[in-house]
Input
Amino acid sequence: DLNPWARSAGFHTMNTASITGTEAIFLNVAGLSRINKTQIQLGHTRYLSGADINVNAFGFGQRIGKGGAFGINLVAFDLGDFDYTTEDTPEGSGATFSPAFFNMAISYSHLFANKVSVGVTAKFVNESISNARASAFGLDAGVQYVTGEKDNFKFGISLRNVGTKMQFRGEGLSKPLPNPGPTFPYNNTYYERSSAFELPSQLNIGMSYDWLLGSTSRLSMVLNFTSNAFSRDQVGGGLEFSVGQNFAIRTGYKYEFDTNEVEATLDNGLSAGLSISIPVKKESGTRVALDYAFRATDIYNGIHNIGLRLDL
Output
């Protein structure tokens, strides 16, 4: 469940309360309705730089009606080519295959009087190789609340990945074995049943506070607690400094409970990122932005995110 979006990755995915736009579909869909009109976003992730694992993402958000917004997220993993091996050819047969991991999410969010926004996401998850696949459906839900004299205090809750179980099926789980009876001399094909497993459900609770510095600058603090159903819980925080809509720099730190260096997951530690936004036309509100984030890891050379964003 890898975050493909650079802005929230710079916070180490802890901006549950303040995330907005199409990337909110990943963390807290309630923030989707806080876009101006239309947002299109592309993301590319180099996961564990040096391991040849890449993630590509596409996001689209559109305001509809008075306070609603509709969004789509597509995420695809590029894991490279693997040698096709069997019991008879353990060193490889010369053939290769490429695993396919693909997620699609469709979301709706609604904003009430600029104070409370809610949202829900339906997602389809698919993992497959040439002769086996598993798929599942899941639901996300979230809420954001904004208050304060200048709307500078935010609170958010999101529940993610609640859905059906995944179970691998296909010809890859079959195996020809000799017929146990003496009547027929040919082999029978037996199918093994793989164990079903659940999606990694997650509860996020976050808050943020903005200090307004002058007429355009802002310093924001985020705090977040993550409860994972099948891994250890995490807590962390981050800071972001922005100058209007043109430039922002951010950093975060996430701590994982009850762990050590051997057992720790990759989803913790330090992160940093920046965004540069350029107006296409001053009066139209159309802007093009470049986002970047880096997350440090104990193995390989970290996780790099880069994104291109168009706001209409």
